[in-house]
Amino acid sequence: MDYSRLLSRRAVEMRPSGIRKFFDIAAEMDDCISLGVGEPDFKTPWAIREAGITSLERGRTRYTSNIGLKELRSEVCRYLQRRMDLSYQPDQVMITVGGSEAIDLCIRALVDPGDEVILPEPCYVSYQPITTLTGGVPVPVPLKAENGFRLTAAELKAAITPKTKLLVLPFPCNPTGAVMRREHLEEIAAVLRGTDITVLSDEIYAELTYGYDRHVSIAGLDGMAERTVVINGFSKAYAMTGWRLGFACGPKALIDTMVKIHQSCIMCAPTTSQYAAVTALRDCDEQIEEMRTQYDMRRRYLVKCLNEMGLTCFEPEGAFYVFPCIRSTGMTSDEFAQNLLYEKRVAVVPGTAFGDCGEGFVRISYAYSVEHLQEAMKRIRAFLKEQGLLHE
Amino acid sequence: MQEGWKEKMELILKILEQNARLSVEDLAAMLDKEPAEVAALLDEAARKGYIRGYRTLVDWEAFGADRVRAIIELQVKPKKSRGFDEIADIIADFDEVESLNLISGGYDLQLVMTGRSFQEIALFVAKRLSPLDDVLSTATHFVLHTYKKDGARYVTEEPDERECN
To answer: Do B29 and A304 count as a contact with CB atoms less than 8 A apart?
Structure first.
């Protein structure tokens, strides 16, 4: 059978993730150092793993309710109140298979063919293809380095049309590390109040911010809870990527519709993971703080090293990525990533994987040990010297 | 004493305990401090004996060297005036002794030493330790394999199977 004729046109036209471009090559190389992963290097804290094991020992191996364990949803509400100052009832919370599923459900629940979805770029790679699969129209808004890669009210206003259905607000941001503080969010909220635009606030990195203030959710601002879906999860903060567990909170009518889609395609999030997550939210504030401290030290180390090498970095305030500008090398993002890989066996992600406006930048993850980062910095320094770009 | 001194010092010691090869500048960046301040803290740590040295974790077994390690349990006679310190000082002065701990439980001193052969260690015990007046008994346990030492796993690292996403 000729599947090139049979496959869905929309599926065929999906672009593969640009993040992986060089990593399949890197995986085949000996002695290659990767700076590409988007998940913590820490193990899930033991108390959480033990809670998962205990749930298995007790034979809790069936489906949970579609929307997720009541106990976990209540715990999510307490957590959001405690750490993000957000007020939700358990029936406004659904448990999903990672933040990724919540993104998918939210877009599918809202977007009809022709509806526009505003995507501030550079951003994580999944919003665009999911929007396209629903027949929606992605409207990229290129963010600027001089604004600290934050979305401004003027940029948002310019992108809004009568067809705008959804704004994706992915902060703290993968890949840039940018954070929107309260004053920046107030500007955005002022534009959105009184419109029918919903916000998909992807806050998966909310626990990983490094300024003096904690993360602020746009849902906490006046009049915004009714037009916002907050998406978060356990992967990044609790180092639980493999457990595949996230959640979405928002207006009940919207969450109910998301649950309806979830019923058909997923049934329920993994039961073992849900029991483990109850312990995560209840008992592990200290552990996530410890991991945050480690990331913060690595972040400052990388920013210093890269700036010294002339790969200027604006100060990333969240997530676990730095996004240095590589324009001074005269190379494109792709050329830089490719040359660095072939000459020094260091794999980074070209900024263009996250949108065209990522040109001139690369993403470097610091979900690695300091030793690993030291070796990588040594190699990048040697690379720049050999290119005649660094004189020491 | 400066405010926050203890927290800063503890953090530096924790970082260096994991990785002694960071420069003062790198440490300063990681801690968001000035290099001069970090240098002063390191001097102080050395001066006050918080830092006893910077060594390398060598896996001699992986290298293939002929080395034998042993853990020796000693029962000794404490002295009225100096307790265990006198005999411990004498034993610690032997160059062959890698580490020596006073411990609770069934015996008094735990000694770790390395030699080129089982025989060399046996001779050390027989000729140097046992004859000491205050040593009452010894029990020698040879190390057959090291799985982890000083917080480091002594195995080939598992490959990093995390995907890029």
So the answer is: yes
Q: A63 by DSSP, 3-state: which?
A: coil
The closest CB to that of B165, out of A38, A305, A370, belongs to A38
Q: What is the pTM of this model?
A: 0.90
Q: B-chain residues within 8 Å CB-CB of A304? A: 25-26, 29
- Who's near A182: CB < 8 A, 6+ residues apart? A213, A216, A221
Min Cα separation A3/chain B (Å): 27
End-to-end CA distance of chain A: 61
**Domain extents for chain B?**
5-47, 60-149
* Distance between CA atoms of residues B29 and B8, nearest Å: 13
CB nearest to A37's CB, from B18, B22, B164: B164
Instruction: Match 């140097």 to its residue by tokens.
Output: B128
| Residues of chain A contacting B, Cβ within 8 Å | 17, 19-20, 23, 34, 36-39, 41, 297-298, 300-301, 303-305, 347, 349, 367, 370-371, 374
ipTM: 0.79
Token reading at A58 = 């007790």
Rounded to a whole number, what is the distance in angstroms from the first to the last CA of chain B? 47
Task: Please give the CATH topology (third level) of the domain spanning A3-43+286-386.
Answer: Aspartate Aminotransferase, domain 1 (3.90.1150)
With beta carbons less than 8 A apart as the criterion, state whether A48 and A276 touch. Answer: yes
The CATH topology of domain B60-149 is Alpha-Beta Plaits (3.30.70)
Per-residue pLDDT of chain A (392 residues; tens, 9 = 90+): 999 899 999 899 988 887 877 788 888 888 899 999 899 999 999 999 999 999 999 999 999 999 999 999 999 999 999 999 999 999 999 999 999 999 999 999 999 999 999 999 999 999 999 999 999 999 999 999 999 999 999 999 999 999 999 999 999 999 999 999 999 999 999 999 999 999 999 999 999 999 778 999 999 999 999 999 999 999 999 999 999 999 999 999 999 999 999 999 999 999 999 999 999 999 999 999 999 999 999 999 999 999 999 999 988 999 999 999 999 999 999 999 999 999 999 999 999 999 999 999 999 999 999 999 999 999 999 999 999 888 76
Would you say B164 and A36 are in contact if contact means Cβ atoms under 8 Å apart?
yes
Going from N- to C-terminal start, the domains of chain A cover 3-43+286-386, 46-283
Q: Which residues pair with A33 in a beta bridge?
A: A346
The 3-state DSSP class for residue B52 equals: coil
B49: which 2 tokens? 């004996």
The third-level CATH classification (topology) of the domain covering B5-47 is: Arc Repressor Mutant, subunit A (1.10.10)
- Both structure tokens of A308: 């010294």
- Min Cα–Cα distance to chain B from A40, Å: 9
CATH number of A46-283: 3.40.640.10
Residue B84 to residue B107: CA distance in whole angstroms: 12
* Closest CA–CA distance from residue A374 to any residue of chain B (Å): 9
